[in-house]
Amino acid sequence: MFKAVNSAISKRIEDLEEQQRVAIARAIVSRSEYILADEPTGNLDSENAELVAGILLDLSKEGRGVLIATHNSDLATKATRVVRLKDGKIIEEYERRSAQ
């Protein structure tokens, strides 16, 4: 039973990772002016999360608007503007001159 459950979980993770890769590729190819990324690194290991963060940062530097909703504080530190919410209210907001 545990083997079947582990197999199902592994398959689901692979499916999610594939969906993320497709969504990022679609954003790059479509030349969308704005990109909304909801937890873009949430299901990724640290190496792939860093790769995705770099891609989103590059898209932003190209002049595209990139809005990221995340709980990942490492990803948030790369943003040029951060708005933190709690219970639906803004509790903190700040900007950096340029993304890291």
Please describe the structure with a list of short key phrases separated by commas or semicolons.
100 residues, Rossmann fold, two-stranded parallel sheet, 3 helices, 4 strands
Number of helices: 3
Shape: globular
Main β-sheet: number of strands, strand sense, barrel status? 2 strands, parallel
Overall pLDDT metric: 82
CATH topology: Rossmann fold
Kindly report how far apart the N and C termini lie. 46 Å
Description:
The protein has three helices and four strands. It is globular. The longest helix has 29 residues, at 2-30. It is an alpha+beta fold and 100 residues long. It has one domain (2-95): P-loop containing nucleotide triphosphate hydrolases (Rossmann fold, 3-Layer(aba) Sandwich), CATH 3.40.50.300.
Secondary-structure topology with pairs:
Blueprint: H1 2-30, E1 34-38, H2 46-61, E2 65-69, H3 73-76, E3 81-86, E4 89-95
Parallel strand pairs: 1-2
Antiparallel strand pairs: 3-4
Q: Summarize this, please?
A:
This protein has 100 residues and is α+β, with helices and mostly antiparallel strands. The protein has helices spanning 2-30, 46-61, 73-76; strands spanning 34-38, 65-69, 81-86, 89-95.
